[in-house]
Write a structure and sequence with these properties.
There is one protein chain. With 211 residues, the chain is α/β, with parallel strands linked by helices. It has two domains: 82 residues, Methyltransferase, Methionine Synthase (B12-binding Domains), Chain A, domain 1, CATH 1.10.1240; 125 residues, Cobalamin-binding domain (Rossmann fold, 3-Layer(aba) Sandwich). The chain is built from nine helices and five strands; from the N terminus they run H-H-H-H-E-H-E-H-E-H-E-H-E-H. The protein has a five-stranded parallel beta sheet, sandwiched between helices. Strand 1, helix 5 and strand 2 form a beta-alpha-beta unit. Helix 1 packs antiparallel against helix 2, helix 2 packs parallel to helix 4 and helix 6 runs parallel beside helix 7. It is globular and about 55 Å long. 39% of the residues are buried. Bound molecules: CO-5-methoxybenzimidazolylcobamide (B1M). CO-5-methoxybenzimidazolylcobamide binds next to helix 3, helix 4, helix 5, strand 3 and strand 4.
Length: 211
Amino acid sequence: MAKIDEVRSKVETGKTKLVPGLVQEALDEGSKPADILGAMVGAMSVVGDKFSSGEIFVPEMLIAAKAMAKGVEVLKPYLSGETSVSLGTCVIGTVHGDLHDIGKNLVAMMIESAGFTMVDLGVDVPAEKFIQAIKENENVKLVACSGLLTTTMPAMKDTVEKLKGSGLAGFKVMVGGAPVTQAYAIEIGADAYAPDAGSAAVRAKGLVAAA
Ligand code: B1M
């Protein structure tokens, strides 16, 4: 079995200790970092499907997530570039009530490597905490809100409304996450939507350039 396939399989089964070494071996074998990441994302989709069908439960989902996070640590230097110019500060977080952070972490990594200074507020972030972060950090040009649950989409709407109504200026709001769409982003008044981490970085740069 090719190492990249082993990465996929071991993320799926949550083999946290094995995944980092396998990711390195897949790189050494010549697999592209983006393909290895794609394999891990694919594994998480399978995990999600198995959860939906009742084949596995929350603990299995959690250990698969931990395994993927360990793999991403190895990939990080290969995925993110170095840049010395700051395009401004990006405040990122997963919205209130939502604990999913793998996608948010990937988006943070890619936006940071596009040239932003990153302030990561973590998960389960209430609107007020985003607003506080804009006040406490210099030159905030972008607020990035992630959400993975349909049940936390109202929290995303609330966050965008409160950010826009805060009286603070000089920043744009980008939203994303599996249940979020371009149409929903427009509906809730966000400035931008991106479907994945790579396009989030491109969109972030475009937003700041256009401001
Ligand atoms: Co959860 N979970 N989970 N979960 N989980 C999903 C999301 C689910 C689809 C699984 C399923 O049922 N098939 C389902 C949501 C259903 C729905 O709302 N429609 C679900 C559920 C139901 C739940 C619980 C409610 C389960 C329960 O307790 N009964 C619970 C909720 C807890 C909470 O948040 N309050 C729960 C818990 C968990 C764990 C904690 C166990 C764990 C998360 C661990 C962690 O993140 N540290 C977990 C996991 C791992 C998943 C799945 C399996 C994988 C998520 C993931 O990391 N994907 C997920 C199933 C799935 O996604 N198919 C599932 C890989 C990641 C790279 O992709 O996060 O989509 P993603 O990020 C992408 C894009 O979405 C985008 O870019 C990223 C990279 O390209 N993106 C942005 C993300 N944020 C962005 C922001 C942007 C732009 C793009 O701009 C700002």
